Amino acid sequence: xxxxxxxxxxxxxxxxxxxxxxxxxxxxxxxxxxxxxxxxxxxxxxxxxxxxxxxxxxxxxxxxxxxxxxxxxxxxxxxxxxxxxxxxxxxxxxxxxxxxxxxxxxxxxxxxxxxxxxxxxxxxxxxxxxxxxxxxxxxxxxxxxxxxxxxxxxxxxxxxxxxxxxxxxxxxxxxxxxxxxxxxxxxxxxxxxxxxxxxxxxxxxxxxxxxxxxxxxxxxxxxxxxxxxxxxxxxxxxxxxxxxxxxxxxxxxxxxxxxxxxxxxxxxxxxxxxxxxxxxxxxxxxxxxxxxxxxxxxxxxxxxxxxxxxxxxxxxxxxxxxxxxxxxxxxxxxxxxxxxxxxxxxxxxxxxxxxxxxxxxxxxxxxxxxxxxxxxxxxxxxxxxxxxxxxxxxxxxxxxxxxxxxxxxx
Length: 410
Description:
Distance between the termini: 31 Å
Number of helices: 14
Strand order of the largest sheet: 1-5
CATH topology: Glycosyltransferase
CATH architecture: Alpha/alpha barrel
CATH class: Mainly Alpha
Mean pLDDT: 83
Helix content: 40-55%
Number of domains: 1
Order of helices and strands: HHEHEEHHHHHEHHHHHEHE
Radius of gyration: 19 Å
Number of strands: 6
Strand content: under 5%
């Protein structure tokens, strides 16, 4: 299961503390005799906790690679949508309504991932629109989103939801509730530049209100601050080394992303990978978080600091992906895509073939949907449908001057 999804799920279940750590490997249980794997679903493990998530990442990865996913795979994902627009982790019985007694409970992470996948696939404007409307109703007063309806905001959920709106061309700065946008939340939860963890983002403040650096949340927050989804291309690197931004005023989204990338780059300078922070997992590599961090670095334009962890993934991550399934392969595909590398030769592994083998065979498409950009369809959603419906409003965040401290060279 994807590391961001894992942290959010476990936090929602009360397993983790406020600063939810990332998962080092796929915690999904083996296929249960009580769960029949549906036709069209990617992966062979029990989909109870990650069915929609892994399906969405697999479909988005296939579109990123230039494939048109099988109709059965897309139909399965569409069929998982709840009546009000959200998506649960998995609906074993789609005839049962969601949110009721014994029904599947929709969450922001599954919904936002499904939006990114369906928008990339195309032809599902009605489902995408319905899901986004549902997400707007769950925005918290601080501008962010929590994992489930009514849950306090967390950086991971906010980042993936921002990616969903960005996929249809909606400016996240215009997603305001009581004057607060998701950018306000991400800036508020960015650690100052002082100290070894300077520039990182917290998952949530702890019980005392302290911000604790979290690599998983930082990778998600960087993409959220950039207004990008799971599969961005590499951004443009600054001409000179980055200087961490400090200010008595809120950071701009670009500063949040750059500060977070500086932290991630520094954290992976030594070993070339991130380590799991789970109890009992001392010194164990965190493959998923490392892949997510490579994507975040590249999206910011920091491809030089990303080269060492990317090379480490090429050498070491194939076995992890084989054991973890389609979401893990998708993460590696996104890393290769962001780095401008060939996913057919990922340290000797053909990620394309490996991913496609975990689900229904796709067809090679004539054109690739560009993740993070609105896909034009005959009945296109349009960038401003949300604003026109009166659900969100506001203006972008201005550029702020700030004090600076020297960080690593790009």
